[in-house]
Design brief:
The protein is mainly β. The chain has strands at about 15-20, 25, 30, 40-45, 50-55, 60-70, 80-85, 90-95, 110-115, 120-130, 140-150. A hairpin with a 6-residue loop joins strand 7 and strand 8 (about 90-95).
């Protein structure tokens, strides 16, 4: 039998991303809490963003955000917009409104956001919005983003 002359390496990434591991803009911070399994991305300004670098969007049909908005911490709520290649790039999709919940012990909300079909590697920008927010104030927290394939 002849020797193998070629090799190919494929790196598989998890479909779930801890949002706080991305590149954070001003108005967003990373905090840990003992009751949460991963660091939380704390959104303190409408228009702030997190960049997830080089995500392969081929065959991706939706993203599910895990988010918290505890009313006891005066969370204002808001939504997550998914943009391509810049915070003002093409809008791929946006979440429904994240509303403040009654307490911090409530389980995280799961917000499924359908995305416009796109292919290839792109920087994905998660832009956080609340048109009623003025200046710096706590809007909500985001834990993870789980990318889902297009149903077959």
């Amino acid at each position: 039998m002849p020797a193998i002359m070629n090799e190919k390496t494929i790196v598989l990434r998890s479909p779930s991303v801890v949002v706080a591991s991305g590149q954070l803009s001003d108005g967003v911070s990373k905090q840990s809490a003992p009751e949460l399994p991963v660091p939380v991305t704390v959104v303190n300004r409408s228009g702030a963003s997190v960049t997830l670098k080089q995500i392969d969007l081929t065959g991706i049909g939706a993203v599910v955000f895990s988010a918290v908005a505890p009313a006891q911490y005066q969370a204002k709520g808001g939504k997550v917009e998914v943009h391509l290649d810049s915070p003002t790039g093409p809008l791929l999709g946006e979440s429904e409104l994240i509303r403040p919940t009654t307490n911090a012990s409530s389980p995280p909300l799961r917000l499924r956001t359908v995305l416009r079909p796109t292919s290839g590697l792109h920087d994905v920008y998660l832009v956080f919005r609340n048109p009623d927010a003025k200046g710096d104030q706590f809007l909500f927290g985001v834990l993870t983003a789980t990318f889902e394939g297009v149903p077959r």
